[in-house]
Amino acid sequence: MCSSDLASLDRLLEAVLKVRLHHNETFSDWSRRPLTDTQVLYAADDVRYLDELVARLEERIAERGRAAWARAEIERRFCTPEAAGADPERAWRKVQRRGRLSPESLAVLIEVAAWREQLARRRDQPAGWVMKDPTLVEIARAIPRDAKDLQRIRGVGRSLGERETAELLDAVARGLDREPPPAERSTPQRIARQVDAVATLAAPFARIRCLDADLAPELVANREQLDRFLEAIVAEEDLTELPLGQGWRKELLGDDLVRLVHGEIALSLNRSAPYLNIEERR
């Protein structure tokens, strides 16, 4: 099975076990009772084939000599306190487009992002379903003082009850009382320009390396992680704290990215897929 994209359960079952599910209840209202017969079948199929699927995947992993890779990845994702769930105090770091906030507003964002994370856990929902990032950023910028101020902010709407509204306003107040975080590290222009230049080669290089290894590129590194690793190489920083500088990711891709930046390997055109070759420079 080629893993050019992260596979859904449906795709895995069809590719590995040749089992095809013929129903789709993804957008059903699962809060209503009783569940329909189709919903019950859909829920059962989510677990019915898991034991056999896991066994077959473990066989494939062992055949490719990647059992140690799989164990390391499972431990990283699920067996540490950091992986058990998002830390509400650090949730703000994942909020997109926060860069233009003032220090005061950034402090507010820390508290309202933590509030969103905690409410998402209570509701058993993804944080983005509770409130979108642009709305959080606007709350931090506008600093609403009461429910009327809050309702004027696009994206808040009527999705919050009295209790949740009060909690959110309390979070804003706590943010105003807290010390703003230290300024986030900025990349010097000289290094940023070098990273931009090498990224045009590194992105297709990374994709080729991942597809050759039959791994989804987004499983190995997203664009932000790739750019950060390139920046660390160019700036001659310690690479061992970054995902691409550790374990199987280092073995698969990280070491060769270092060689690419240092001019030790090159890319050339090939007539067949994936249309680029990775070559040693002499």
Describe this structure in words.
With 282 residues, the chain is mostly helical. 57% of the residues lie in helices and 4% in strands. The chain has 14 helices and 2 strands, in the order ααααααααααααααββ. The chain has helices at 9-17, 37-48, 50-63, 67-78, 81-84, 103-123, 127-130, 133-142, 147-151, 162-177, 189-212, 217-220, 223-234, 247-261, and strands at 265-269, 276-280. It has a two-stranded antiparallel ribbon. A hairpin with a 6-residue loop joins strand 1 and strand 2 (276-280). Helix 1 crosses helix 3, helix 6 (103-123) crosses helix 8 and helix 11 (189-212) packs across helix 14 (247-261). The chain starts with 8 loop residues before the first helix and ends with a strand. Residues 1-5 have low confidence and may be disordered.
Gap from first CA to last CA: 35 Å
Overall shape: it is flat
Share in helix: 55-70%
Low-confidence stretches: 1-5
Biggest sheet, in brief?
2 strands, antiparallel
Share of β-strand residues: under 5%
Structural class: mainly alpha
Element-by-element helix/strand order: HHHHHHHHHHHHHHEE
Continuous helix count: 14
What is the average of the pLDDT values?
88
Strand order of the largest sheet: 1-2
Give the beta-strand count. 2
**What is the CA-based Rg, rounded?**
23 Å
